Amino acid sequence: MNTQSTKAARGNAVMNRQLKIKPSTARTTAQSHFRTLRLGTPFQPRIEALARTNDWYNWAGYRAPHSLWDEELEYFAIRSQAALFDVSPMTKYRIEGKDAEAFLNRVTLRDVTKLKAGRVHYTAWCDDEGFVLDDGTLFRLSPTRFRLCSQERHLPWLLDSAIGFDVTVEEETEAVAGLALQGPTSFAVLRDAGFSGVERLKIFDLADFPHDGSTVTISRTGFTGDLGYELFVPAAQALSLWDRLMAAGEPRGIRAIGYTALNRARLEAGLIVANADFVTSEHAIRADRLRMPDEIGLGFMIDLEKGHLNGRRAILEARAKRKLRHVLVGLEIEGNIPAEHAIVYHRKSQEVGLVSAAMWSPMAKRNIAIASLARPFGDTMVDDLWVEIYALRELQYQKLMKRAKLVPRPFIKLDRRTANPPADF
Q1: Phi, psi (5° rounding) for residue 166?
Q2: Which range marks the domain in which residue 197 is found?
Q3: 415, part of any domain
Q4: What does the pLDDT look like over 14-56, one tens digit per residue?
Q5: Is residue 313 part of a domain?
Q6: What SUPFAM superfamilies does the annotation carry (predicted)?
Q7: Is 268 annotated in some ligand binding site?
């Protein structure tokens, strides 16, 4: 052992004596992080009890299920009954104060002054170069209090951006538990659970309801393109909320689901996922992976009448000088083999893009996909597009070239999503 290693060993021994840790315990402590399970949400005991497939993934440090019992049947639970999905790992920020509206109007794309208390809107935010940092939902809980939900964590950026505004920004991801209740019987489940007045919620409305000595915020929102709601409750009341919904929903076939089923439903609805269908600017390593709102179908959000917003100058310059390089499109592909992560070609020879999500849609009865294409393909050049699919047939991959055509999103549109009052199935 060299002198440096000897000093290090002595230093560790001294530290262990000071902390009263035995050498064997010190080794165990040093290695324990390899065996530590991911964080559990407040609903974890109920989810673990229902898990049959034992198919987990890491969602922002949390142990989350890809599926719980059968990913195919979980998808059909969304479309035919009511599905319960734990959204607690979604990053949540409480933003409040006299300047909360002005602050959010400065950092997000949409006009927050048009968002009334008791309403929600889908929005996005950009860096100074006009590239998308993330997208998410903004809940206006009161005239001066908001909740911003997103895929990624942005607390340092939000705090830096808040300088000069009379506003407080606090992450409440662990303090607030969240559930998505989606599907045609979701309204009936809430009504039967005793949430009186929930029938008055129109699409993108929210309201507070009493629950277990506290309050649950229910919004008519979701990520499935179906009739659905999202519920946010203090973590201490999470399990009682779960039990209340499951008891009320049992006669109507309520089922807990994992992300695979939800991902299929969101694709049918034509909705995009950060770092799946586009790379957020903080995660992009290569410069050509960055995306402006107009390049991922979010250009409609940009409100140029509201004054300055992050990235405004760069976005306007890209539009004026035709510097937009990509376009996100919906595709319908011949055949019934999903084209996930397939390369998109023009005239079967020139690579022009990549499929980010694909499936055979049971609702649309079509082979659908979302793809990012290099302009002018997907913009002014829309014909003679093909995808390259590798299909596994009898232990051998077969290369298939299938024709693709541009189609509008969403791929399905369900009237029950926006029906008012909500349908009682």
Answers
A1: -85, 85
A2: 44-89+175-268
A3: no
A4: 344 343 434 444 444 444 544 555 899 999 999 999 999 999 9
A5: no
A6: Aminomethyltransferase beta-barrel domain, Folate-binding domain
A7: no
